[in-house]
Amino acid sequence: MGLPITRKEISNRHIKTSQYYLEPLYNLLRERLLTQPLLHADETSYRVLESDSQLTYYWTFLSGKAEKQGITLYYHVLIDLFISYFNPL
């Protein structure tokens, strides 16, 4: 078809669709995960492609091994390094 669709447009559509369809399920799983007595977490950061001024962070939260139904949740944040540099908290 030759439609001129940019990477940004594809990414934005993916995000909006995920929010609409998957956010209620994510919130339910998060509520259940927070009631468990033991949680595991990991934080990973890396630079955004084609950008020297932005970092992206991923957090992973997992239920303990003793749980009957395991839950794994991911949380993602994009941070502009120049905003925090020029506007310190």
Automatic annotation (TrEMBL):
Among InterPro entries, the record links this protein to: Transposase-related, Transposase_IS66_central
Tell me where in this chain the Transposase IS66 central domain is found. Answer: 1-75
Q: Which PANTHER family does this chain map to?
A: BLL1576 PROTEIN, PTHR33678:SF2
Please report the name of this protein according to its UniProt entry.
Answer: Transposase-like protein, ISSpn_AP200_6
